[in-house]
C-alpha cells in the first residue's frame, strides 16, 4: 500500500514547463549506503504546444556568501558548488525505461503524455542546506548553502533560460542522527601550579554522543582540587563552530547556551555536579552569523545540525560545516578549561521512505 502523498508542483510563468516532486527534503544517509533518500526524483510536465523547444532540468547546490548587490573584494557573491543538467525534452531515453519510483509512475499516469520522469543523484561531497542567521537589520539574501531544482526551456544547454519559461523549486539536503550509539564523550585535564605539590583535576562528561534539537544536555563536572589555589568562576557553555570553506577556510565560534555558576572549589576539596544546558535558536534570535538549518519559504528552523562528513570526502567539501562542543572553564591561578564534542541533530523521521521503495 502506498501512503497518501503530498506532491509539490510549480509552473513557469508562461506555463510551458512544470515540475512535480514527492518531497523537498533529501536525506544524506551518513551511516548507511541506502541510496534511496539520496536521489531527487521528479516529473517534468512540458507543454510543447506553447513552444517547440528543448527542455532541461538542473539540480544546483549554490554557496551564497553575500547579498546580491554586494561584490566581496571583486569576487562574485555566489558560487555553484555543484551543477548537474539533464535534457528532459525531447527525451533522450525511452520514457518507460527511466521510470524509477511508484510516485513517478502515478504522476506519469495522471499527467499523460507531456510528462517526463527524471532523477538526480546527490554526490557524497556536498554540504547540507545551512545558512547564517542575518542580523535583524540586514536585508536581502545571506550566506547560505542552497539547493534548487530548475526546469527551463532553451535553444540549447548553454543558452540563458528565459525567466518566463523557467521554474525553480527550492529543495533541502538534510542529515539525521546516526543509528549507532557512539562513545560517551568525556574530556579531562590536569594542571600543576607553581608552589603546589599536587595537581588540579577537571573532567566533564556528557550522557551520550548525540542530542536532539531541544533536548537538555546534562553535563557532569568533576573537579578534584589538590592544588593550593581556590577554584572559582566556573562557567559551562555550548559552542557552535562553523567552518566556512570556500576560497579560504574561516572558522566562527559562537556560544549558544551559557551558565555561570557560583560554585567554588577551595584548595584541597572536590566538586561533582551536574549542570544542564539546552541550546535553542529561541534564545539566540538576534545573533548575527549563527548557523541555522536551511529552511524552505518562511517555515521556522533551528540551530544548524552537526555536519557528519565521511572521512574520505572531508577535504573536498565546500560550503559550511557545523559542529558543537561543551566547554567548561574555571579560574584557579590561571584559566583551566575542557572541551567535549557532541552531535546536535534531528532524529530520523519514522516511515519517511516508504513510498520511495522501487516499484518493480
Ligand atoms: C538529565 O538529567 C535529568 C534530571 O536528572 C534527567 O531527568 C534526564 O533524563 C537526564 N537526561 C538524559 C538525556 O539522560
Ligand atoms: C588531587 C587532589 O589532591 N584532590 C583533593 C582535592 O580535595 C579533596 C577534598 O579534600 C581531596 O579528597 C582530594 O584528594
From TrEMBL:
<comment type="similarity">
    <text>Belongs to the arrestin family.</text>
</comment>
<dbReference type="GO" id="GO:0007399">
    <property type="term" value="P:nervous system development"/>
</dbReference>
<dbReference type="Pfam" id="PF02752">
    <property type="entry name" value="Arrestin_C"/>
</dbReference>
<dbReference type="InterPro" id="IPR011022">
    <property type="entry name" value="Arrestin_C-like"/>
</dbReference>
<dbReference type="GO" id="GO:0001664">
    <property type="term" value="F:G protein-coupled receptor binding"/>
</dbReference>
<dbReference type="InterPro" id="IPR014753">
    <property type="entry name" value="Arrestin_N"/>
</dbReference>
<feature type="transmembrane region" description="Helical">
    <location>
        <begin position="36"/>
        <end position="59"/>
    </location>
</feature>
<dbReference type="Pfam" id="PF00339">
    <property type="entry name" value="Arrestin_N"/>
</dbReference>
<dbReference type="InterPro" id="IPR017864">
    <property type="entry name" value="Arrestin_CS"/>
</dbReference>
<dbReference type="GO" id="GO:0001917">
    <property type="term" value="C:photoreceptor inner segment"/>
</dbReference>
<dbReference type="InterPro" id="IPR014752">
    <property type="entry name" value="Arrestin-like_C"/>
</dbReference>
<keyword id="KW-0472">Membrane</keyword>
<dbReference type="GO" id="GO:0007165">
    <property type="term" value="P:signal transduction"/>
</dbReference>
<feature type="domain" description="Arrestin C-terminal-like">
    <location>
        <begin position="196"/>
        <end position="349"/>
    </location>
</feature>
<dbReference type="InterPro" id="IPR011021">
    <property type="entry name" value="Arrestin-like_N"/>
</dbReference>
<keyword id="KW-0812">Transmembrane</keyword>
<keyword id="KW-1133">Transmembrane helix</keyword>
<dbReference type="GO" id="GO:0001750">
    <property type="term" value="C:photoreceptor outer segment"/>
</dbReference>
<protein>
    <recommendedName>
        <fullName>S-arrestin</fullName>
    </recommendedName>
</protein>
<dbReference type="InterPro" id="IPR000698">
    <property type="entry name" value="Arrestin"/>
</dbReference>
<dbReference type="InterPro" id="IPR014756">
    <property type="entry name" value="Ig_E-set"/>
</dbReference>
<dbReference type="GO" id="GO:0002031">
    <property type="term" value="P:G protein-coupled receptor internalization"/>
</dbReference>
Amino acid at each position: 500500500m502506498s501512503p497518501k502523498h503530498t506532491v509539490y508542483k510549480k509552473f513557469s510563468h508562461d506555463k510551458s514547463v512544470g515540475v512535480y516532486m514527492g518531497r523537498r527534503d533529501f536525506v544524506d544517509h551518513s551511516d548507511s549506503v541506502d541510496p534511496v533518500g539520496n536521489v531527487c526524483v521528479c516529473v517534468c510536465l512540458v507543454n510543447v504546444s506553447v513552444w517547440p523547444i528543448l527542455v532541461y532540468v538542473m539540480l544546483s547546490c549554490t554557496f551564497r556568501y553575500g547579498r546580491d548587490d554586494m561584490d566581496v573584494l571583486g569576487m562574485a557573491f555566489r558560487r555553484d558548488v555543484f551543477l548537474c543538467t539533464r535534457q528532459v525534452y525531447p527525451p533522450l531515453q525511452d520514457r518507460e525505461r527511466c521510470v524509477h519510483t511508484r510516485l513517478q509512475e502515478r504522476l506519469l499516469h495522471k499527467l499523460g503524455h507531456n510528462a517526463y520522469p527524471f532523477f538526480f543523484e546527490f554526490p557524497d561531497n556536498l554540504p547540507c542546506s545551512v545558512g547564517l542567521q542575518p542580523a535583524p537589520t540586514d536585508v536581502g539574501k545571506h550566506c547560505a548553502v542552497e539547493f534548487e531544482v530548475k526546469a527551463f526551456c532553451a535553444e540549447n544547454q548553454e543558452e540563458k533560460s528565459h525567466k518566463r519559461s523557467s521554474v525553480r523549486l527550492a529543495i533541502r539536503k538534510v542529515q539525521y542522527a546516526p543509528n549507532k550509539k557512539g562513545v560517551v564523550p568525556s574530556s579531562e585535564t590536569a594542571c600543576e601550579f607553581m608552589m603546589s605539590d599536587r595537581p588540579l583535576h577537571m573532567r566533564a562528561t556528557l550522557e551520550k554522543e548525540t542530542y536532539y534539537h531541544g533536548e537538555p544536555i546534562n553535563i557532569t563536572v568533576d573537579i578534584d582540587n589538590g592544588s593550593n589555589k581556590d577554584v572559582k568562576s566556573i562557567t559551562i557553555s555550548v559552542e557552535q563552530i562553523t567552518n566556512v570553506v570556500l576560497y579560504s577556510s574561516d572558522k566562527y565560534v559562537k556560544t549558544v547556551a551559557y551558565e555561570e555558576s557560583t560554585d567554588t572549589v577551595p584548595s584541597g576539596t572536590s566538586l561533582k555536579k551536574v549542570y544542564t544546558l539546552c541550546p535553542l535558536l529561541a534564545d539566540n534570535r538576534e545573533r548575527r552569523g549563527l548557523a541555522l538549518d536551511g529552511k524552505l519559504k518562511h517555515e521556522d528552523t533551528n540551530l544548524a545540525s552537526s555536519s557528519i562528513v565521511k572521512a574520505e570526502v572531508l577535504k573536498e567539501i565546500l560550503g559550511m560545516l557545523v559542529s558543537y562542543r561543551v566547554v567548561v572553564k574555571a579560574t584557579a591561578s590561571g584559566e583551566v578549561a575542557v572541551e567535549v564534542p557532541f552531535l546536535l541533530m534531528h532524529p530520523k523521521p519514522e516511515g519517511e521512505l516508504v513510498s520511495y521503495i522501487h516499484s518493480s
